[in-house]
Amino acid sequence: MKLKLDENLGNRMATLLRLAGHDVATVSGQGLSSTPDVQLIDICRNEGRCLVTLDRGFGNRLRFKPSEYYGIVVIRTPKQTTPTDLREAIETLILGLEQSEITGKLWIVQRGSIQEYRAIEEEETDI
């Protein structure tokens, strides 16, 4: 899977995803830090990449209709996020990507669970 990690996720998370066989680009590595959300998601679409982020704003299905993108992953962590929290969420994402297709969907990933959403009009499911 082609993924783009937002600037709020570190290089360790990119390494974990690469070790799992994914093609990973990073916002910071491409010099896109502080790029507005709408522009960033359009870049992901043009590159054929799924965006992986901690930015909950990308979970707004009215603003970012999942069916228009190669996938959006919003990682949710506790308020006091630790590197372990992020690693466990990324491991959950890796397992989800092995089991299901994300193109056209929004995934909200927490340690041990993935909530899947499609466009507002479509049905929501758990993976």
Largest sheet: 7 strands, mixed
Share of helical residues? 25-40%
In one word, what is the shape?
globular
Let me know the average pLDDT.
91
Rg, please? 13 Å
Low-pLDDT residue intervals, each spanning 5 or more residues: none
> What's the number of domains?
1
- Oligomeric organization of the protein chains: single chain
Enumerate how many helices there are, as a single number: 3
End-to-end Cα distance, whole Å, is 18 Å
Structural classification: alpha/beta
Tell me what portion of residues adopts beta-strand conformation: 15-25%
Strand arrangement within the widest β-sheet reads 2-1-3-4-5-6-7
Order of helices and strands: EHEHEEHEEE
Total beta-strand segments: 7
List the topology elements.
Layout: E1 2-5, H1 11-19, E2 23-26, H2 37-47, E3 50-53, E4 72-75, H3 83-99, E5 106-110, E6 113-117, E7 125-126
Parallel strand pairs: 1-2, 1-3, 3-4, 4-5
Antiparallel strand pairs: 5-6, 6-7
Helix pairs in contact: 1-3
